[in-house]
Amino acid sequence: MTSAPRHKHLDEMRPWNDQVQVLECVAVLPETRDVMTFSFQTPDESWFRYHPGQFITLELPMPGGPMLRTYTLSSSPSRPLSVTVTVKAQAGSMASRWMFDNVREGVRLKAYGPAGIFTFHNHPADRYLFISAGSGITPMMSMTRWLYDYARHTDIKFIHCARSPSDIIFRAELERMAARVNDIDLAWIVERADPFDAWTGYKGRINSLMLELIASDYHEREIFCCGPAVFMQAVRDILNAAGFDMTHYHEESFSAPLAEELGPVGAEDVIPEEGKGARVVFATSGLEAACTETDTILQVAKGLGLNIPSACQFGVCGTCKTKKISGEVHMVHNGGIRDDEVEEGYILACCSKPIGRVEVEA
Ligand code: FES
């Protein structure tokens, strides 16, 4: 008889350290015809601390070389013994296809994060409206699971748009949660019904009339939206036309933000000067290079042939987090690093520019 591992209490376990970076797949669950959920733990039994709605970056050892891909966590930190990502096989996506074909129980992957600012923890409210389409449901699921587990009766209107009823991800679990509490109100909108099956819900694409019918008080709600770019644009158009106060609208986007959306420059910030010389020293590898103040640390590293892992390249995913040993950088990130990490001396190499001489661990 093999001796089963002793199950530990949470306070006997350490939080996952993304510097160690390894996750082990412990379960694979088919969700719909082209969506799978992958569940991960760490080989050394850590617990997971993150905000519902955040994402991780996985390093996939694909045949052409490692590929970094960012996936929102569909799990909730209220269930901290594992994390899950729910992946849709997008047409032409090599990474998702690789995940489907290769990630099985026991497979280990390098991972970075969690990171991201798309979470209601940054926008506490009594009433929320979650609007999603396709795999954009994953951060909404994480947030809804958290609020359900929290059990303080937060009012959630949950709108999800899918191609057909059988494409609705997490439908059974969401309906079970909604059946157990009074204040989760679900509305499915599908483009078409499944053949040989009855559909009595909304059909078509989301529009202002549907929004009014589903959540007539949406002007008083904190709105979170996630889905394809055209879908989020359509939702923004509906809300703008209705005069919604867009400071209460938040969306998840993995594409580079527009320049004017970057954070304000503080009075104390030193601004990099075009053409002004700088120097970056990489302490671990013993390399260094002259550059200008408008180069990023990541660009300088790449120029030396030094691999600092990176994914988004605009300060969102946190993959390129690196410790600064000395000197100053000008960093304009988009939520990929926490304030306490900055205080500890970490920077994001992809969006940090050296001011004078800078030494980093890498
Ligand atoms: S590569 Fe994503 S934050 Fe730097």
Low-confidence stretches: 257-267
DSSP strand (E) fraction?
25-35%
Reading the helices and strands in chain order gives EEEEEHEEHEHEEHEHEEEHEHEE
DSSP, total strands = 17
Ligand inventory = FE2/S2 (inorganic) cluster
Report the mean per-residue pLDDT as an integer: 90
Largest β sheet strand count, sense and barrel closure: 6 strands, antiparallel
Shape estimate: globular
Gyration radius over CA: 22 Å
Separation, N- and C-terminal Cα atoms: 46 Å
- Structural class, please? alpha/beta
The share of residues in helices is: 10-25%
Helix count, DSSP H or I runs of 4 or more residues: 7
- Oligomeric state, counting identical vs distinct chains: single chain
For the biggest β-sheet, the strand order reads 4-3-6-1-2-5
